[in-house]
Amino acid sequence: MLGLDLSFFDLEMLRKFVLQGFIFSVQLTVVATFGGIVFGTLLALMRLSGKKILMWPAMVYVNGMRSIPLVMVILWFYLLIPFLIGKPIGAEISAVITFIVFEAAYFSEIMRAGIQSIPRGQVFAGQALGMTYGQNMRLVVLPQAFRNMLPVLLTQTIILFQDTSLVYAIGAYDMLKGFTNAGKIYGRPEEAYLLAAVVYFVICFGLSWLVKRLQAKIAIVR
């Protein structure tokens, strides 16, 4: 009815054009999630440390990153890092670095909320046992904070997967790039973008459903 022709959509097309991009999108999501959580947790601890020398740099970093569009940060890193080091690093490596430093700001706020959700009585109990600040955080606070914030962390990861499509700006071969190339080769760009939207929806909707199930189980455990 709309003049769409989806006859080119088959397993061969997916294998030839989309699979490589899908693998890169997943790899970028996983690496950026782990790197962002580690870096973000450090930022959260800095903001909660009570020491201005740690609080202010972390606050400026987090608020600054959260105020800039991701696509601009992607372009900045892609253009500035080769300028600073004197050699290109490639679109893929640039994308990984960008996503880690950008997502760390968002994971930082999630972890800060998770840490603050832990009753102060447990922190005082750890101090009463002679634990240092680091031991208290590592053994008492952070394990509970991670459990409490797990659904939110996973939701942010789903958003991160969607955002990987922005690496088109620097020419990295992600899943959207695969569909774009297929649309050009087969002369069906509209159909290719429609299929890309459907695939993103199916993946993200399925993951969101799993996160809701996990959230329900965590609520029961509580």
Write the layout of secondary structure elements.
Blueprint lengths: L10 H37 L4 H15 L3 H16 L5 H26 L3 H9 L4 H31 L11 H12 L2 H33 L1
How would you describe this structure to a colleague?
81% of the residues lie in helices and 0% in strands. It is an all-alpha fold. Helix 1 crosses helix 4 and helix 5 packs antiparallel against helix 6. The chain starts with 10 loop residues before the first helix and ends with a helix.
The span between the termini is 52 Å
Q: What's the mean pLDDT score? A: 88
State Rg: 21 Å
Total strands: the figure is: 0
Biggest sheet layout: none
Helical percentage = over 70%
Q: Quote the beta fraction.
A: under 5%
- Helix segment count? 8
| Strand/helix succession | HHHHHHHH
Global outline = globular
Secondary structure class reads: mainly alpha
Q: Can you tell me the residue ranges where pLDDT is under 50 for at least 5 consecutive residues?
A: none
Please sum up the structure shown:
The chain is an all-alpha fold.
Key terms:
222 residues; mainly alpha; 8 helices; 81% helix; 0% strand; globular
